[in-house]
Design goal:
256 residues; alpha/beta; 6-stranded parallel beta sheet; 8 helices; globular
Length: 256
């Protein structure tokens, strides 16, 4: 849905193109009227390296454990955010946390027992031995630390597999998933700086495609917790009532 709408070109101000696709999206979105039809920028900038599909296929099967492309099985992605706790990043309370990631993965696995749950990002629980997984996918040979190819890989997954959508904390990556056409649940913290921004995306795409869920309860040690070498082991335990809210939303949001 969202990806098709982007194909309708929108005039973009000078200086629009930033270092990453998601940053470009946010910049453009802040400059445009969010109540208008969702027309942001040229699809070619988001589509990645279309000629790399064989490389994507190889890495997904050999690195991630995906089967050959098929719409037969259903998948749900859970994105791990680390950028706030590491390297003096912003919004540390919006990081997923290791315990938080485990909570979400196991909760959605319980309610969607016929669906394959796929962790995405820097971390998966140590006792999570299921595949496929998209942990550290940007380090794969097909990626070569190239943001365009990372976007291309996600778009390839969207078009080649039956992905119900993605769940994750508010971030540029979550916006990027939505922009590529994934149904998206964006988890936020009530009152956190910038928490109104995702509601603009929700208004543009519609609540049936992009849904904001606000956590109301603080989590323990919501401060920077870096060990100094970029390694972070923040638990980030999600309050029971907030977890129930997330899972309740997921039940009625994804088409199972």
């Amino acid at each position: 849905m969202a990806f098709d709408l982007i194909k309708k070109e929108q005039k973009i101000p000078n200086g629009f193109y930033k270092e990453s696709a998601s940053n470009s999206f946010l910049y453009a979105y802040s400059k445009l009227n969010p109540d208008k039809e969702f027309k942001l920028f040229l699809a070619k900038e988001m589509a990645g390296e279309q000629g790399a599909t064989n490389e994507y296929k190889n890495d997904l099967e050999n690195k991630a454990g995906f089967p050959p492309p098929s719409k037969e099985k259903k998948y749900l992605l859970v994105n791990y955010r680390l950028s706030g706790q590491a390297n003096k990043g912003v919004h540390p309370c919006l990081d997923t946390g290791e315990e938080g990631m485990s909570q979400i993965l196991n909760a959605v696995k319980t309610i969607f027992n016929e669906i394959i749950i796929v962790p995405v990002g820097e971390f998966k629980p140590y006792d999570w031995d299921e595949y496929p997984t998209l942990v550290n996918y940007w380090n794969w040979p097909s990626m070569q630390s190239n943001r365009s190819k990372q976007v291309g890989l996600l778009n390839y997954i969207k078009t080649s597999y039956n992905v119900l959508g993605v769940i994750g904390m508010r971030s540029g990556v979550i916006d990027l998933f939505a922009l590529l056409g994934f149904k998206t649940i964006s988890i936020d913290r009530k009152g956190e700086r910038g928490f109104k921004r995702p509601y603009k995306t929700q208004a543009a795409l519609g609540k049936d495609f992009f849904r904001v869920v606000e956590m109301e309860y603080p989590r323990e040690n919501e401060k920077l917790n870096s060990l100094g070498d970029g390694t972070v082991h923040w638990k980030g335990t999600i309050h029971k009532k907030d977890l129930e809210k997330i899972i309740s939303t997921a039940k009625g949001f994804f088409d199972t």
